[in-house]
Amino acid sequence: MSRLHNKHIILAITGGIAAYKSAELVRLLIKAGAQVQVVMTSGATEFITPLTLQALSGNPVHQHLLNPQAEAGMGHIQLARWADVLLIAPASANVMARLAQGQADDLLTTLCLATHAPILMAPAMNQAMWHDLATQDNLKTLLARGFQVHGPADGEQACGDIGAGRMLEPNALVSAINEQFEQSLLSGKTVVITAGPTREAIDPVRYLSNHSSGKMGYALACSARDQGAKVILISGPTHLQPPEDVTFIAIESAQDMLEASLNVGAVADYFIAAAAVADYRPIMASEQKLKKRDADHGLTLELTQNPDILATMVQQHSHAIHVGFAAETEALIRHGQNKLERKGVQMIIANDVSNTHIGFNSDDNQVSLITASGVENLPLLSKQQLANQLILAISNIPNKA
Ligand code: C5P
Fold it and tell me: What H or E segment, with its residue span, contains residue 268?
């Protein structure tokens, strides 16, 4: 999984022949799943057209600081806040000088002052300009202020000189951006999530199921993925699109879900059971469609209990951290604490399903986090915001010894 998925990257291009490489850079960033906004100085537009970069990034190119039209869309402060990383590539000797002085006389320099995001720069210039004492002084100033400077590389230059001053190749710059996100909460971890309802067949056309939408489990899958995890989402039938960059396993019944969970359990660092698993299934699904009988004859279905997937995972893959949900209509915390112990999990996320504004099928949810060390009540949040909070809390659960 790319760490750049959904990350917000501003690519600022200044005037230099290496600007042609920036087109490839945008392409690679988009391919890695990043969202890219391109900023160009007027010098940059002499080397490569904004139209090319607009087509590759899928966003209009930002060129002017005081353009009422642009400010009505994403203004410069908004753009500065939007960025997770700002990369200046190529960075000319001129922009280095202006940044070293803290100028804010165009969009690029203003963004650099306004943003809290890390600023990376890939200098590119003639080797004599690079070695000039003024540029070297500016470099020292910028490094001391926290700018990260990548390159320049040595080699043959467009002007015919040989020496330091070539912009790093786009691949190397994408790696440099990737490194900014290395500290993701779950990088290197595998998270298995169950989601949605299960369907328990009565006959070839009928089943027992429930109203679970799958939204919570899918939101958790997206958050875990965005925190750098490899995510395996095992889902019953829902109306949701499988999230991108997530391994998706579609199942129908609780028994299918158990089998799929056991199959991947060995690689799981975390197992999060967000599915609403049917507690019972018909003892035998009829091979033929059941026929309606006389009006005075009812139909009795004999049910048997489904396996508890979460409890089975705790027993069979005890190395992982296990998290369950508890949907309760009363005594939320007491029932949640019982479940924590009974299932042997590290966290129960408890929510009150008697409140129709939260929980099943709604877009919002309010939960309490129950662990061996206590209870934490979270506020009412959208399921995606809640998922982000939950992934943060889950990633803080201490590893098993
Ligand atoms: O026991 P109860 O159904 O209340 O437990 C809910 C938690 O256990 C949820 O995390 C749910 O996904 C999980 N569960 C399961 N297999 C079952 C029933 C529940 O994994 N058969």
Answer: none
The top-level CATH class assigned to 8-178 is: alpha beta
H or E element at residue 389: helix 383-395
Asked if the domains 8-178 and 190-395 are classified in one and the same CATH topology, the answer is: yes
Angstrom distance (rounded) from CA 138 to CA 133: 8
- Dist. CA 342 → ligand 1 center (Å): 11
Could you tell me the CA-to-CA distances from 8 to 5, 34, 136 in Å, in that order? 9, 6, 30
Q: Of the listed 66, 128, 143, 159, which one is catalytic?
A: 159
Where do we find the tokens 């940059």?
44
- Tokens for 141, please give them: 């100033």
Contact by Cβ (8 Å): 39, 70 = no
Residue nearest to atom 21 of ligand 1 (CA): 308
197: β partners? 276
| Per-residue model confidence as pLDDT tens digits over 275-314 | 999 999 999 999 999 988 776 788 899 999 999 999 999 9
In the predicted model, residues of the chain with pLDDT beneath 70 are: 1-2, 182-183, 295, 358-361, 401
Q: How far is CA 245 from CA 32, 142, 249, 274, in A?
A: 10, 36, 13, 19
In ligand 1, the atom with minimum distance to the C-alpha of 272 is: 10
In the chain, where are the structural domains located?
8-178, 190-395
Can you spell out the DSSP letters for 58-75? SSPPB--SS-HHHHHSS-
pLDDT digits (tens, 9 = 90+) for 89-124: 999 999 999 999 999 999 999 999 999 899 999 999
Q: Is 283 helix (H, G, I), strand (E, B) or coil?
A: coil
C-alpha 346 to ligand 1 mean position (Å): 14
* Token digits of residue 342: 């009974």
Instruction: Using DSSP, state whether 113 is helix, strand or coil.
Output: helix
159 part of the active site: yes
With the C-alpha atoms ordered 25, 30, 34, 36, is the resulting torsion angle positive or negative?
positive
Under CATH, what is the fold of the domain 190-395? Rossmann fold (3.40.50)
Determine the distance separating the centroid of ligand 1 and the alpha carbon of 217, expressed in angstroms.
Answer: 13
